[in-house]
Amino acid sequence: MRRASLVLAFWLAAGAASASPPVERDLSAGWRFRLAQGTEADAHADLKDWLPAQVPGAVQTGLLAAKRIGDPFWRDNEAGLQWIGLSNWDYRLDFDVDAATLARGHVDLIFDGLDTFAEVTLNGRKLLSADNMFRQWRVPAKGALRKGGNTLEVHLQSPIARLLPWLMKQPYSLPGEFDSAFGDEPKGKQTSNYVRKANYQYGWDWGPRYVTLGIWRPVRLESWDDTRLADFHVAQQHVDADNARLDAQFDLRADKAGPVTLQVDWTAPDGSHGHEERGVSLAKGENHVSLPVAIAHPQRWWPVGYGEPNLYRFHAGVVANGATVASADRETGLRTVELRREKDQWGRSFAFVVNGVPIFAKGANLIPFDSFPTRVTPERLEAFLRSAKDANMNMLRMWGGGTYQDDAFYAAADRLGIMIWQDFMYGGAITPYDTAFRENARIEAIEQVTRLRDHPSIVLWAGNNEVQTGWDDWPDRQDFRKFVNADEVKRIDEGMRELFGKTLREVVDDLSPQVPYWASSPSTDYEGPANVETDGDVHYWKVWSGSEPIDHYLDITPRFQSEYGLQSFPVMATIKAFAEEGDMQPESKVMRAHQKFANGDGNQRLLLYIRQEYGEPKDFPSFVYLSQVMQAEGIELAAEHLRSARPRSMGSLYWQLNDVWPGASWASVDYFNRWKALQFHAKRFYAPVDVVPLRRDGKTDVFAVSDRMADFEATLRTRIYDMRGKLLRETNQPVRAAALSSTKAVTVDDATLLKGADPRRTVASFDLVEQGKPVAHHLLYFGAARTLDLPKPGVSTSLRDDGHGLVLTVSAKRLARAVWIDTGDIDVRLAQNAFDLLPGESVDIAVDGKVDIDALRHALTVRSLVDALKENTP
User: Fold this and answer.
1) What is the mean pLDDT of residues 605-615?
2) Residue 715: how many CA atoms within 13 Å on its side-chain side?
3) I need a labelling partner for 343 at 20 to 30 A (CA). Which of 371, 639, 758, 839 fits?
4) Other CB atoms closer than 10 Å to residue 99's CB: what's the count?
């Protein structure tokens, strides 16, 4: 490298380059906003005066902070706030610029996110027109800036007000998702298809309609001279246990041709480190240059449960004339990921393989964390990811109708070892086929893949959510095909195949070739029909959406089930955050407003499933509790069926982990990160080792399911109890649980298990015992809960401080079905909840959270299934 140094010294003597590094200035503070002049909103004329704005933020969050609107989530406030998204708004920032900034060769204005149709002017000069919420906008600003005071203005136009007049003149409207419940768009005329904006903000069947406008990502000035490092990427050419061959890639913008030195310093998880450097000659303009990096015996990144999520730190420097002119830092994990699709006796596999190890994907789907995404802090993001990890999840699917998350989200997933299935942001609506839309989408994809590709947690890029299966199979799409002429239908179909089958695939293949691409979810990657059991991934909604019984989950064994779900309400403490006492009934106006499935009729669907499985709730809190029991036990049945079918099935991602607001939904963790019963069940049914009894037609197959990397010897212990307390029988048999497999341990019929005992009063207990200790436990009942003669359990509790924290002990004299411990308004996390207790059984539960023991004792309530049903329920 001495030769490169001599060249650089010569270049310095010739005065060829400046050595000042770029300087960034945050412009997110000090903004004001107002209702745009000329906007027809006479009822809100007071908003035409400037108010303090939240940047990053939305108009809605700014109005809320200024106390000009009420809580958007309170009761039925949603309907009265729709005017905000139908109006135009202005943002303004006055700021000073010094002479030193203006003396730099370049000064760029950067908006990391504008929502969505925006005109930007600086000191009266138009700089840009934005039309994509998901893109970054960088424009040269030096020519418009002046020393001293400057004024930056952003005019935001309502996407509905802008697009609807145009759409009403078109010969047809592309099929979308959910029609507005508020009449601002006619039925079947959805503008969201035609704009690159988060689909869920137009309303979904789990969240409200809040069409946001605003500056939703940071704003900054970047001043630089001759050289700018536009991107630094650690490409992983080859990684195995012995060697990692990496390519440190620099994207550089240079005003002049000349030599620079590329430098890379890396630090391993164990503290070891290395240095590489290389001299290169830059051409004027854009340069893509690289530096090879070799690491022996790399400490690889593993998903949770398979090893440590090891991360390496890389520091890149660009040196010119003996000084660093640009630098960047990256943290990444070294690993390989493969989406394995091989023909076998069941069709064609769909399995994620990390570092050569097939991984059964255990997890859920993620939706946005708030209707207003800028309210979500990095701490809140990480807390939800920790909830997933604590429930033994190793994968989350970032669903395509929301937003690409902040870097902090993916960084937390990297640290926690949670794999991310990342959809591009297309939520199911049919997309336009014009070249301008596709080019906008291509640039968006380039920017997002470039931003996120160094995160080892991202193991799949998927083109969209349900676009192909919707186009092929949904009734409204089939009706559309009949209405529109065949040539136009062909153009629409080819346009989607071009976008999702080619354009986005090429972006991923070019920028992140180590991560697989999948055209649509569910699909077979355009290699056949979508949503089929024998190939690709499946969304299964005959249960719930189709009102089929819960045990129909056992009727299908797809290669990978990436969506399925049952609804429930959140806990009463969360309901009280949006409702008054008088609202506490399933069909109240407010409860229907917070139930988005079937325009509020979803509460009747909940009652349908509750009555089928359990009986009649005796009051509203019982209805809430029973909705969670039904959801938890139903999803448990589906998930354990999928795990028991490994390797035929290699993934279970239920719908959904989280909520955008407090209300009824398919979530297992509510808006406030309070765990529902399903999340506690998931902690058990996604455990590394599980024992799974599946009963159908009077016969039960019992499986030992293991995610361990090695076989282990165990004993299957079967005990039969009378629910009122008597142990009727116990048997034991050896089981060799195979590594990364499901092993069928036994098949047994009801007659053998019961031996004449009353099935209505009997429960079977299965334990997988290793070296004398149970490592998995499961109860089996001989019929739906409403058909059983459940006893009054005689549950008792005690609370103590054991010196390490609070411990809650729960005991039952007789069988206690679906025990739920409620801590009221005290937010603590219990190590266990939503469980059954055998007769005479007692369990100690750690309490996580700082709380006074007497306050918790006073707030604590415990209920079981029999407490929630009307007396005349069978």
Assistant:
1) 98
2) 13
3) 639
4) 8
Cα distances (angstroms) measured from residue 180 to each of 174, 201, 207, 564: 15, 11, 12, 25
What element of type H or E holds 2?
A: helix 2-13
Burial bucket for residue 713 (CB in 10 Å: 0-12, 13-18, 19+) = exposed
Nearest to 473 by CA among 422, 545, 420, 416: 545
Q: Is the dihedral of CA 139, 142, 144, 145 positive or negative?
A: positive
Please give the helix or strand (H or E) that residue 162 lies within, else none.
Answer: helix 159-168
Predicted TM-score of the model (pTM): 0.96
* Structure confidence by residue, pLDDT tens digits, 216-272: 999 999 999 999 999 999 999 999 999 999 999 999 999 999 999 999 999 999 999
593: CB partners within 8 A, 6+ apart? 75, 76, 78, 79, 600
d(CA 422, CA 469): 18
| 427 in Cβ contact with 379 (< 8 Å) | no
**Rounded Cα–Cα distance for residues 200 and 658 (Å):** 14
Q: From its phi and psi, is residue 38 left (phi > 0), alpha (psi between -120 and 50) or beta?
A: left
Give the Cα separation of 263 and 316 in Å (integer).
6
CA distance 431 to 305: 39
HSE-up of 322 (CA within 13 Å, CB side)? 7
Which residues are within 8 A (CB) of 165 and not within 5 positions of it... i.e. 6 or more apart?
A: none
Q: pLDDT (tens digit, 9 = 90+) per residue, 815-841?
A: 999 999 999 999 999 999 999 999 999
Percent helix, strand and coil across the chain, each to the nearest 5: 25, 35, 40
Question: Cα separation of 694 and 597, whole Å?
Answer: 30
Two structure tokens written together for 837: 């207790």
Tokens of 173: 């409207």
Contact 499, 196 (CB under 8 A): no
pLDDT at 8 exceeding the cut of 80: no
The SS3 of residue 506 is helix
Distance CA 715, CA 533 (A): 34
Task: Tell me how long the chain is.
Answer: 874
SS3 at position 96: strand
* pLDDT tens per residue across span 451-506: 999 999 999 999 999 999 999 999 999 999 999 999 999 999 999 999 999 999 99
Q: Where are the alpha helices (DSSP H) in 645-759?
A: 677-685, 750-754
Ranges assigned E (strand) in 445-565: 458-462, 517-518, 538-539, 561-563
Cis peptide before 522 (omega within 30 of 0): yes
At 572, which helix (H) or strand (E)? helix 572-575
3-state secondary structure of 561: strand
Q: Which of 486, 479, 599, 546 is nearest to 175 (CA)?
A: 479
* Residue 127: burial class (beta carbons within 10 Å; 0-12, 13-18, 19+): buried
Phi, psi for 509 (deg, rounded to 5): -60, -35
Q: Which residues contact 479 (CB under 8 A, 6 or more apart)?
A: none
Who's near 124: CB < 8 A, 6+ residues apart? 151
Measured distance CA(173)–CA(189) in Å, rounded = 6
Structure tokens belonging to residue 91? 């943002």
Residue in 526, 539, 408, 432 with CA at minimum distance from that of residue 488: 432
Closest CA to 115 of 39, 191, 217: 217
Backbone angles phi, psi at 133, to 5 degrees: -60, -25
Closest CA to 683 of 390, 344, 487: 390
> Six-digit token pair at 664?
């009824």
Give the contacts of 267 (CB within 8 A, at least 6 positions apart): 273, 312, 313
